[in-house]
Predict the 3D structure of the following.
Amino acid sequence: MFNSSASSSQSSGNRFYRYEVVGLRGRRTSGSTFFNVAYDRMSQFTRQILSQGGKILNVSPLGGDAPLMASSESPMPTTEELPVPTTEAVPAAKKKAHADVKVNIYRPNSPLTGKLISNEALVSNGGVGIVQHLKFDISGSELEYIEGQSIGIIPPGNDAKGKPNKLRLYSIASTRHGDDVDDKTVSLCVRELEYKNDAGETIKGVCSAYLCALKPGDPVQITGPSGKEMLLPAEEDTNVIMFATGTGIAPMRAYLWRMFKDNERAANPDYNSYKGKAWLVFGVPQTANILYKEELEEMQTKYPDNFHLTYAISREQKNSEGGRMYIQNRVAENSVELWNMIKNPKTHTYICGLRGMEPGIEEALGAEATKEGIVWKDYVRSMKKEGRWHVETY
């Protein structure tokens, strides 16, 4: 977002700023176009870029100062007044963007038949419920995916109306290279849904119960991949804040593997040295329900300067008022530091899991925004337009 408070601290007059713009109508070039704009023409220039369908990726003062993100809401010259774009080469990472991310390679009417490799319990003794880590063999297929996407699973059989069961979507818990880093697998983190109906009968989720009961070698019908909401930015110096409950840890695990797992880093020559700060706030009912606990703590131990791990264990920890410890309580405890991170235009925030955690998170962070005269809802709206506020809850 173009930060007005930040820009006001810059000297004005004849100072120039470099804009990186994509999507201008009438331009045949792909990727980014760069413009050098005088300070006193920035508002006019912004309006004109937006009127021509352009999107501003960033604004940086010429002279080496830190870049300032531009907002699609920011106020910009007429077509005739547009500066001549620079001929600076566009970085490869910018050219890729998310527009080329593949979706729906396999559809419900022609799914991929994968095969289960392993089905491992993630909840320790004494924990609540059943949660499994499932790894599927997709070798020889055309299925490609990246961190933050989902796949669909079609359970066998018919529904109550006699029609074939519909697919259910699950967030992918592995990186694009798979758990074995060989581009041959995809993994899921699945909780077996169980509840009682009005008659007091125990009902299990059709697809989740099917998946949790699978044995190695069993076939499974897979669709996708789907979704672009939860994708990671390409830059290695991006800060990533993650709020997750339960199986909402799935995409976060994929992000963290990409950032910190040695074999994974070696497999990514264009993303092999994460330089930002990653902070995961993970909410669970008991210690036994901390999914991927050993993995998470190993990464934190190995990369303490880049990865901060915070648990909110509701049935074991107490908040400042003596009640149960939930994610929103941890956010409130760390609201100043989290808010300062969020204001950084290089910070992306991801929320995945139970929808009920959203209001508490927004209340705690909104309180910090209010102290600076910022309306939280407006700020979230601007972050969404910039593509750095990502939510997938249920």
In short: The radius of gyration is 23 Å. The first strand starts at residue 16 and ends at 22. The chain has eleven helices and 16 strands. The mean pLDDT is 85.
